[in-house]
Predict the structure.
Amino acid sequence: MTSIFQRVNDALATISPSILSAMEVFEQAGSASLPAQYITYQLIDGSPAAHADNTETMRTYRVQVNIMSTSGLAVLPNVDGAMLSAGFTQGPERPLPKDQDTGHYILSKDYYYLEAL
Amino acid sequence: MATRARFDMKGMEQYLEAIQQAGLDIDAAAKRALDKGAAVLQAEMNSLAPVGETGNLKGSIVIDGPFQDGNLNYVEVGVIHADAKTAIYANVQEYGSPSKNIPAQSYIRLAVTRKKSAVMRAIRESLKAEGMTD
């Protein structure tokens, strides 16, 4: 079965033009080596959504995707399009404080995925 | 950035109507019910909240309200009246700090996901105790 991490990876890999994305923040020698735009993601929660005969049959995952950009948040990669095409649904989103060290603005977006087990 | 959850009486109209038909004070009943639901959520947030050096975060998760906006009663639960330092810590814990490699340790969103049914159950039970019939 495809893991939720693989699903996010595959979805973000379809963004055109391509943008660097990873589960963890990139290892970097210094802030100067960070790309102007990049994406990180993580799993927030996976909870059972349905059971049959005492067996879990469906599970909902909530993943948080963070889009980092030094040029503001007005023009961003089409993460929604990529995630929705991969079967995710949109959740809430919010801007995070600008990173004072690297100059990146950050938009954090939540997505849900309902997995039939 | 919200480090709080807000919920209201939407979806409970039929129960509230039953209370009204019984001649009871609908707003007072709704507020008491919201209090019960909020307590469930607050307990879960407290159990999930990460404990740092000061432990201030756990003590800062409070229930605010219930409030009334027109016909709608609602309540908020979360880090609402905290000092600036705790508020920033609360945000970083909930959403992480992606560029600083700090992962989110969600205690607001997770509590809502896990306790959604329990909150609604607590609200329904409270309304039942007010005289609502199934």
Summary: The beta strands of chain B are 4-8, 61-69, 72-79. Chain B is about 50% helix and 15% strand. The mean pLDDT of chain B is 84.
